[in-house]
UniProtKB/TrEMBL annotation, chain A:
Keywords: Cell membrane, Membrane, Transmembrane, Transmembrane helix, Transport. Residues 66-255 form the ABC transmembrane type-1 domain. The keyword Cell membrane applies. Belongs to the binding-protein-dependent transport system permease family. This is Carbohydrate ABC transporter membrane protein 2 (CUT1 family). The keyword Transmembrane applies.
TrEMBL record, chain B:
It comes from Hephaestia caeni. Residues 356-379 are annotated as: Disordered. GO terms for molecular function: ABC-type transporter activity; ATP binding; ATP hydrolysis activity. It holds the Pfam family ABC_tran. Residues 4-234 form the ABC transporter domain. Keywords: ATP-binding, Nucleotide-binding, Sugar transport, Transport. It comes from the Bacteria. GO terms for biological process: carbohydrate transport. This is Multiple sugar transport system ATP-binding protein. The lineage of its organism: Bacteria, Pseudomonadati, Pseudomonadota, Alphaproteobacteria, Sphingomonadales. InterPro entries: AAA+_ATPase, ABC_transporter-like_ATP-bd, ABC_transporter-like_CS, ABC_transpr_MalK-like, ABC_transpr_MalK/UgpC-like, Mo/tungstate-bd_C_term_dom, NA-bd_OB-fold, P-loop_NTPase. One of its GO terms (cellular component) is ATP-binding cassette (ABC) transporter complex, substrate-binding subunit-containing.
Amino acid sequence: MKRAVAVNGLLALLALVTLVPLAWMVSVSLMAPGDAAHTPPPLLPDHATFTNYTMLFARLDMARYFANSLALAILATLLSLTFNVTAGYAFAKLHFRGRDRLFRLLIAALVIPAQVAMIPLFLLCKELGLVNSFAGVLAPNLATIFGIFLVRQYALSIPDEMLEAARVDGAGEWRIFGHIVLPGLAPILITLAIIAFLTSWSDFLWPLIILNDADKQTLPVALAGLAREHVQDIELMMAGAVVTLVPVLLLFLALQRFYVRGLLAGSVKG
Amino acid sequence: MADVRLTGVRKAFGDTTVLDGVDLTVADGEFVVVVGPSGCGKSTLLRVIAGLEAPGAGSVAIGGAVVDHLPPAERGIAMVFQSYALYPHMSVRANLEFALRMQRLPRAEIRAAVDAAAATLDLTDLLDRRPAVLSGGQRQRVAIGRAIVRKPRVFLFDEPLSNLDAALRVRMRYEFAALHRALGATMLYVTHDQVEAMTLADRIVVLNQGRIEQVGTPQQLYDRPATRFVAGFIGTPRMNLIAATLREAGPDRSRFDLAGGAFLDGPPLAGIAPGAPVSIGIRPEHVAESGANAREGRVRFVESLGAIQVVHLDLPGLAEPLLVTTTDRPAPGATMSVALPPDRLHLFGGDGGALTIGNGAPTQKESWRQADNRLRSVS
């Protein structure tokens, strides 16, 4: 009992530590310009105002960056689902020459930090003429080793006999994949979709490198620009942070039930 | 006409040989049970026939046509898996319909076939449910239904009852027998349970380490096992097998030395030299109370099966206790007189094959091989 109180108390404290900056971010975004610079900084606005949001969207073109980020995140999610799920299933259930060796190679490549690959990746994109295009932003997201690994581990739990029953029933491999396998993979599809969306939405470095034109920028890059140019406008920056953060936070909260289930399912089912 | 003919089928996974030259013919409409211990290759045999595994060598023919190059769906077979392998996200109806939808049959025809199968298997009330809410027996029936709707030429059953509890297993055994009578289709049924094999089969194939030990009717296998392995595998309680050495083989009788100076008299033997190691087999139910080879032993342990008692009896010269079935229940430690009638003894040589009993007639193994060949030529 005592232990439970202590553990819950600790968890509540940690939740508070996590939530307070978020709440303050929202609070500051509603303050009038200059209000947050007082010492000590106020916790709540005297008069809540949407001035900062109006300025973001009216003068700083935030709507365009928001649309760019949204379009890229949705496309990245679709591409990730298409390629990671087919590849993960193939590694788990289809037999082809060199399958296990290739998979081991992929897993080994997981230890290479993404930053190390950035320069070669950029040169590749340059050769392919993808610099300063959305295609260039999306190219590295087509398939990820982590995504393939995630789907493979989950797909391993699909009984072979079920796939064989479908083969005996006369279903082709694509039909088996579409009608028998995909419905069974639903939890991991949602997990993968959330991960892909969040990764693309919050990616900063790669869009910064590959995109030049201001009107192609994504939210995190625009936000960084905002922080540089309006270093004293704390309220404006916080409004930008809210715009960047809230959609993904809501998405995650709405789907977290599936997200956790998908992550746990692979390990529990083995 | 849908007989199944396997010729020299071999299959290896890496260095492990699973099927080692299997020749088998299953006649049209026959119910053949393939039985053997775990890992003997029986499931692989079924999967080779289904086309789910390609044989390393040899050939499979169904209905007189070689099907080695055909995918499973085009072989005219249906398979019921041990785990049932139902599609979990589909209703029972959708599970039953799946194969027919793959064949792009007209909707009305699919519906009629599914309704008929559901009626046969008492599934009509369950058609809208998902497999997850069904009991083991109901799932099993759905799996069978999925096979029936396709109207296959050959049914393949891979240990279909092993996930059910004992009572349900017995009931489903009757249902399989009834199904075979009703459909008259060729059926191959794999199990490790020799009771299932004995009760269901027209003929039993005993498989051991990828080789066929014996093919025959349940009674043939029980009465005249061709090898020591079959003798020990078929029959409950299992046959007693006693290690011995042949002392003399005569035209009227033979005599065997057991450990510690004990001996047993057996039937006349031919074609074997004295001094050869042999195994003497006798079924527990064939041990008599008195007569030839009368001995006295001490009761070590009694297993009660209700109607009969299985007595474990320590006899001089035997490494393991002799199993004897009786109707009354002796007390452990009591002395009991038994006799081993020579005409009830089964004799196996050092290679495990049955020995020639009598004067120069073919060995039991040979005679049953010949019988099997005759059956093959008939079919």
